[in-house]
Amino acid sequence: MIFLYLITLLVVTFVIYSRRVHSYWKRKGIIQMENPHLIFGSYKELFRRQMSPQDFGIKLYKEATRKGYRYWGLYQMFTPVLFVFDLDLIKRVLIKDFEYFMERGGYHNENEPLTVNMATVDGTKWRPLRQRFSPNFTSGKMKMMFQTMAACTNPLVDMLQEYADEERTVEIKDEFSRFTTDVIGNVVFGIECNSMKNPDSEFREYGSRAFKISSRKRFILQKLPNSLLNLFGIRRIDKDVEDFFKNLVKNNMEYREKNNIYRKDFLQVMTDLKNQIAQNPDEPELTLNDITTECFMFFAAGLETSSTVSTFTLYELAVHQDIQEKLRNHIKDVLERHDDKYTYEAFQELTYLDKCIHESMRIHPVATLLPRICTQRYKIPGTDVVLDKGDEIMIPLAGVQYDPKYFPEPEKYDPERFNEESIASRPSITFIPFGEGPRQCIGLRFGFLQSKVGIAAIIKNFKVTLNKKTIHPLEIVADSFIPSAKGGVWLNFERI
User: Fold this and answer.
1) Cα R_g (the chain), whole angstroms
2) Is the overall model pTM greater than 0.85, yes or no?
């Protein structure tokens, strides 16, 4: 009987707690989504795998804008989250009033060094990291690494030629991931991965394991305190994966120093920075952990995102043969002016390829929901609403990019939305695939260039068509942090 009373008391206490938490926005005078789930809050469709984050964001945006809401209060389990739909307020959060929203709220844990990087840490730690490492991500540094990147297209083309001759269909996400693995292995870590010939390479295996995380686990890791995670040994990245990357960087750096080897890659840039800092006693030391973490961040930013962007772009080009043919002619014309050589300057002229990739990123955004954390009390302009320190903001990028007011017939693939005239006709904040403002993705140049190089090599050499194994129109897997197509994207390749 006592046990029954205790259970009843616990249930009643939980319900009261849940109802209290789930009235947070209402108490602030903000309209909130009605009837939040006792446990999942407003996110039950995501936790039950009924909807992908992209579809969730688009649905919310459509409903909110139809009702005329500038913002809307939701709950991610027991965490209040304010979804912002008004473009002016989005711009304030990301740019104009950035000092109030410096934090992203990404998972980072000092017990997992690879998670503590400039993409995840809070505002006070982020700024010095950004200032220290920003010079390593300039267009000049990209130009320095370009030829190493371009050389990785040779095994990609060779492999696809074999598939074309054998009339084999290709699941392009997997194949392009092998290409990006080779690029990052070479350009960032200075190693030859040969993933095209050896898809089960150690580097690729550990790299893949670093990103195997569901949307639900990602939400949970962000919400539980690190002390509790550490107590139960719950990690975002397995310890042996962390050790692999740390040893990879350590051994490579020691080998280069011992043998006086200089390479034009990111690890060399970090080594030069380490030596430069060592000569300045006022600068904090650049440790092995620091270098490994930033190399891994580069790896994380470039691997899954680039292969995902490229997969969706190739899918759209396979569906729209006229656009594919126009792009192929454009690539050939530009390369002819550069003696048919892949140079950094030639790729800056591939403007139609830029349009094709941008339009693919609009329809199939990699970042669908952009988070920010309020770092100090903030009064929303034109209202009496005050946000407190710690309040979470969410910007539904996918919803904005599907708004017919800015992109007529939003589901139609039309690269000319990104010609100069069209871009000038709409607010700039309507398309921000890499975020915006001071905390915009620092590796955007690298990721975008990597996609351009791979796609250009494919379209130049092959006619790409959709295989019947591909679900068309695409369906996005619900429980996936990085958007992926249900059943994969299967393509056919024919030599030009």
Assistant:
1) 24
2) yes
